[in-house]
Amino acid sequence: MTEPLRIALAGLGTVGAGVIRLLDANGELIARRAGRPIEVVAVSARDRSKDRGVDIARFDWIDDPAELARHPRADVVVELVGGSDGPALALARATLAAGKSFVTANKAMIAHHGLELARAAESANLALKFEAAVAGGVPVIKGLREGAAANVIGRVYGILNGTCNFILSKMEAEGRDFGEILSEAQALGYAEADPSFDIDGVDAAHKLSILASVAFGAQPAFGDVAITGVRHVMAADIAEADALGYRVRLLGVADSGPHGLFQRVHPHLVPLSHPLAHVVGSTNAVVAEGNFVGRLLFQGAGAGDGPTASAVVADLIDIARGEFGPPYAMPADALAAQDAADSGERRARAYVRLTVADRVGVLAEIAAAMRDAGVSIESLIQRGANPDGSVFVAIVTHEGPERSVAQALEKLRGSQSLVGEPMWMHILAD
């Protein structure tokens, strides 16, 4: 075997400690697969004295993570600090400027600055790897970049946030409302104390932006992702979806065509016949549709120390083998700058939930708004009165332009009959 690949590691949280544990446990096997040993030589974190369950005394301790880029024995820097800017971005830039390859699990940084970093890595013939940034231990980036490289990918979509999927599938199983399940998820460690990035869809949007770039050869365009989270999904929506033969899932969906790059994170009704309807708990799952390979499903643990560390070390094995390649499956300068696609003319069926005052003429008002906007109603269901006197109305539309549904809801938005905001969910075609 040749000389070891030596690693400087920034961030010793759950994943950073997991990387060290994995290298300790599987070091011999990893060395055989990589063709040489992989070893950590330096680390940096906020608190040197914290007990992380791993021995860090054997590594050089560096107070300033940016200094890892200049560590004399390090060949590669691994960043597990997080954040789109700040210390993480400074470390990424410094590492590539110092002529060292860079591995990260930082989806926010890659979504916002991936193109810049890819250009810097390619110009210096260095590796930039970010498998762990999307879907934890699920090798979806590698699958798209390498396994499906011969295909035109028509669409990529999936369950990209484990926190939201845990909440929705638990609501589904237990019939309880969002707020209760969120509190439980926080107590169990599935949700952060401030869960906004997860439940408002931002985390999933970061991952979708990365997937879209790799799948379609498009420049990253996180700012063009339309985002709606799950905080307004009610137990009644879950029950209604079930009665109709669907499950509610937060999906990231992207496709590319003559009208531009379409990217959206939004709650969907997923038919029971579709594999994503049966993905429960904190699991992630991604579907890619290739013109020759057909439908591919990547599924597994989307977070946690073991799965994410596994993806980080898989990237390190590639680097140890000398397998660099362009980060986005093609050179950064070949990535197309695509306009954001207008969703208005996309044709689909929709689920709309309205909470309305229980009085004569409300259903006629709703039907008239739908009719005037050109929305064809497949079914309209009114449920019994809530304690506050309001009633729940669920509408499923026939396939039609999304713009028509938006116009109908805009007509209704100022109505005195509505109690609260409407909930609109797209229905995924099987």
Comma- or semicolon-separated keywords:
430 residues; threonine biosynthesis; alpha/beta; Homoserine dehydrogenase; six-stranded parallel sheet; single chain; homoserine dehydrogenase activity
Question: How would you explain this protein's 3D organization?
Answer:
There is one protein chain. The protein is built from twelve helices and 17 strands. The protein is an alpha/beta fold. The strands form two sheets. Strands 7, 8, 9, 10, 11, 12, 13, 14, 15, 16 and 17 form an eleven-stranded mixed β-sheet that branches. The protein has a six-stranded parallel β-sheet with strand order 3-2-1-4-5-6, sandwiched between helices. Strand 5 (101-104), helix 3 (107-123) and strand 6 form a beta-alpha-beta unit. The model has no long low-confidence stretch (mean pLDDT 94). Pathway: Amino-acid biosynthesis; L-methionine biosynthesis via de novo pathway; L-homoserine from L-aspartate: step 3/3; Amino-acid biosynthesis; L-threonine biosynthesis; L-threonine from L-aspartate: step 3/5. Belongs to the homoserine dehydrogenase family. Keywords: Amino-acid biosynthesis, Methionine biosynthesis, NADP, Oxidoreductase, Threonine biosynthesis. Pfam families: ACT, Homoserine_dh, NAD_binding_3.
